[in-house]
Backbone:
């Protein structure tokens, strides 16, 4: 599906929660990750290498309404590391790159 979208010059935004899914999506060429409520610091180099943008939709962490949501303290550390490393981070949500 990703290959077909890219062949048609369409970007692919993927909703994701857990690290396993995030890794699979990035390895398969998505352009943006929406939410990523369980983003792991170990995945940040892969996002950077592949040029994938993370749209963390911070309200999800604040409200804990999404499955897998964590408290801000936990995700805040991963977010700060992502910014420090130069990972593409977008604000907003569900809109793609």
Residues:
């Amino acid at each position: 599906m990703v290959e077909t979208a890219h062949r048609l010059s369409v970007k692919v935004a993927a909703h994701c929660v857990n690290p396993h899914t995030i890794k699979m999506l990035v390895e398969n060429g998505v352009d943006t990750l929406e939410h990523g409520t369980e983003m792991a610091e170990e995945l940040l180099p892969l996002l950077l290498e592949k040029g994938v943008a993370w749209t963390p939709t911070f309200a999800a962490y604040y409200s804990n309404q999404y499955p897998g949501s964590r408290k801000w303290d936990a995700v805040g550390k991963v977010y700060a590391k992502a910014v420090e490393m130069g990972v593409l981070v977008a604000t907003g949500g569900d809109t793609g790159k």
